Amino acid sequence: LAKTTQPISMDSYEGQEVNITCSHNNIATNDYITWYQQFPSQGPRFIIQGYKTKVTNEVASLFIPADRKSSTLSLPRVSLSDTAVYYCLVGDYGGSQGNLIFGKGTKLSVKP
Amino acid sequence: EAGVTQFPSHSVIEKGQTVTLRCDPISGHDNLYWYRRVMGKEIKFLLHFVKESKQDESGMPNNRFLAERTGGTYSTLKVQPAELEDSGVYFCASSPTSGRALTEQFFGPGTRLTVL
């Protein structure tokens, strides 16, 4: 499974756009990129997944360049409730493999 | 729709005692997973059930841990005897199908286990 590197922490203010970049230089052809969000005292929550180019849903956008060696999670106009840890996961989770590999994540703090 | 539930939310036991954690997945989800985060460490995979069968138990730390999923519904994770290093938060997750959907796992709130 590809190793991921992401910033330990980030600070932002309400209303700003936040971009969290994850590096995954040894991503494999069959690997997908998935992001999870975790609030204090809760389990992780799936946010978004992509393979290449751009994916957007009601929560976030995921930008993946052509070489797929990195990805950027974009949170538009964050609010205080977006304060959480964000995990970037890379792997081929198809078939029977279901063991998600969590790294240290990025702790996002949104200030008023 | 009810989410993944876990019981108890907290458990404090002494070293050498036995503790059983329970997870109720989302109804209809065949896949059930256990993860844990020990103090200061990352969330680590323990095992994966497909219905009542253990699909992957490569993350189970040792034979003091026993997971079951009789009938393919709820699951239990028993730690016997508990050691100090077992303290942490135990998460359960479920997902409905195989394939790519495995990456969208629905997590419960976790059980915080403290071994004294």
Structure described in brief:
The complex is a heterodimer of chains A (112) and B (116). With 112 residues, chain A is mostly beta strands.
Overall mean pLDDT of chain A stands at 90
Order of helices and strands of chain A: EEEEEEEEE
Alpha-beta content class of chain B: mainly beta
What's the gyration radius of chain B in Å?
Answer: 13 Å
What does the main sheet of chain B amount to? 7 strands, mixed
The N- to C-terminal Cα distance of chain B equals: 37 Å
Unreliable segments of 5+ consecutive residues of chain A: none
Name the overall outline of chain A.
globular
Portion in helices of chain A:
under 10%
What strand order characterises the main sheet of chain A? 1-9-8-3-4
Count of individual beta strands of chain B: 11
Low-confidence blocks of residues of chain B: none
How large a portion of the residues of chain B is in β-strands, by DSSP E?
Answer: over 45%
- Work out the oligomeric state of the chains in this entry: heterodimer
Major sheet description of chain A: 5 strands, mixed
Overall geometry of chain B comes to globular
H/E order of the elements of chain B? EEEEEEEEEEE
Estimate the strand proportion of chain A: over 45%
Structural class of chain A: mainly beta
The rounded distance between the terminal residues' Cα atoms of chain A is 38 Å
Number of helices of chain B: 0
Task: Walk me through the structure.
Chain A is mostly beta strands and 112 residues long. Helices cover 0% and strands 46% of the residues of chain A. Chain A contains no helices and nine strands. The N and C termini of chain B lie far apart (37 Å). At the A-B interface, β4 of A face β4, β5, β9 and β10 of B.
